[in-house]
Write a structure and sequence with these properties.
249 residues; alpha+beta; Creatine Amidinohydrolase; 29% helix; globular
Length: 249
């Protein structure tokens, strides 16, 4: 069931979203060669707690950290560890959420570590553009399929592919709510977008083919072909005045 949010609830979601964005900014500020993914997770945890919130992902479905941190060919759900040290030329994807006053924020970014390849730069840029292509379609009266079709078309036009096995979702009192928001689909199909819907649009874009596999840790997802992957996510609300991004400072 799709939960429609009131104006008051959307204001609360904005606060959770701001805390989430502050945690992302804190992590971004220390990204450099020699930093471990555990270091990133630690600063995220401390920032969220400092604002009176709780990390949404910590212990969610048993996940053991405050953020999913995925490097290079890791698509999503990477487990932070002191053993993974960022190096020049890597790309690192951070997915973080904060729970405050009954509501969640959820966002993701992919960052370069120092100087990266032209392909990596393009992948990061196009993945962000894919989010905004979907965002533009997030207006009252459109359908979820319009979002996915726009995301997928932009990825393919740029020589990349969209991950099909994992999708965006509704956000509210739970991190994951209805509806599912795929990064592919048919325009004009799927649930109709209505005022008060709050969703996370999450383009997960691979430099190569769209196939993925799961590590034995039960969490980390990798590209089948070993090529790079990036993602870019915001929680947004559908309003009379168009979509608004909730995960922002």
């Amino acid at each position: 069931m799709i939960n429609i949010k009131s104006d008051v609830e959307i204001e609360k979601l904005k606060i959770a979203g701001k805390i989430t964005a502050l945690a992302m900014e804190a992590a971004k500020s220390i990204i450099a060669p020699g930093v471990s993914t555990a270091d990133l997770d630690t600063i995220i945890f401390r920032t969220i707690k400092a604002h009176g919130a709780v990390p949404s992902f910590l212990n969610l479905y048993g996940f053991p950290a405050s953020a999913c941190i995925s490097v290079n060919d890791q698509v999503i759900h990477g487990i932070p560890t002191k053993k993974v040290i960022l190096k020049e030329g890597d790309i690192v994807s951070i997915d973080v959420g904060a729970y405050y006053d009954g509501f969640h924020g959820d966002m993701a970014r992919t960052f370069p570590v120092g100087k990266v390849s032209e392909e990596a730069e393009k992948l990061i840029r196009v993945t962000k553009e894919c989010f905004y292509k979907g965002f533009e379609q997030s207006v009252i009266g459109n359908r979820v399929g319009d979002i996915g079709a726009a995301v997928d078309a932009h990825a393919v036009e740029n020589g990349f592919s969209t991950v099909k096995q994992f999708v965006g979702h509704g956000v509210g009192r739970k991190v994951h709510e209805d509806p599912e928001v795929p990064n592919f689909g048919k325009a004009g199909h799927g649930p109709r977008l209505m005022k008060g819907m709050v969703i996370a649009i999450v383009p997960m874009i691979n430099a190569g083919e769209d196939g993925v596999w799961q590590d034995d840790d039960g969490w980390t997802i990798y590209t089948d072909d070993g090529r790079l992957s990036a993602h870019y996510e915001n929680t947004i609300a559908i309003t009379d005045d168009g979509p608004i991004i909730l995960t922002t400072v």
